[in-house]
């Protein structure tokens, strides 16, 4: 059971790193067409797209919003999941 929790924790940590790389690469316009960046976008889009839809439906969203807060929400969710995994691992 411990291996499963540690593997899940490492997966979430890797997802956080990919999100960070995606955010940082979005600040560099020439990096958007790089194959590694496009791969990272394909990996992280299933996480960010539903969050973007929820934000757009909320009072914080809308077509006029210039900032994308979906990575910030994703970081928070991943952190909550990691804390839950740690709590479960400690209770076993």
Automatic annotation (TrEMBL):
GO cellular component terms given for this protein: membrane
Pfam family, one: CCB3_YggT
Family indicated by similarity: Belongs to the YggT family.
Protein name: YggT family protein
């Amino acid at each position: 059971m411990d291996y499963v929790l540690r593997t899940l924790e490492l997966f979430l940590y890797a997802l956080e790193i990919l999100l960070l790389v995606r955010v940082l690469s979005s600040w560099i316009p020439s990096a958007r067409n790089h194959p590694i960046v496009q791969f990272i976008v394909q990996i992280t889009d299933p996480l960010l797209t539903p969050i973007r839809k929820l934000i757009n439906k909320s009072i914080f969203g809308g077509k006029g919003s210039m900032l994308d807060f979906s990575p910030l929400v994703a970081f928070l969710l991943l952190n909550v999941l990691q804390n839950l995994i740690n709590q479960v691992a400690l209770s076993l």
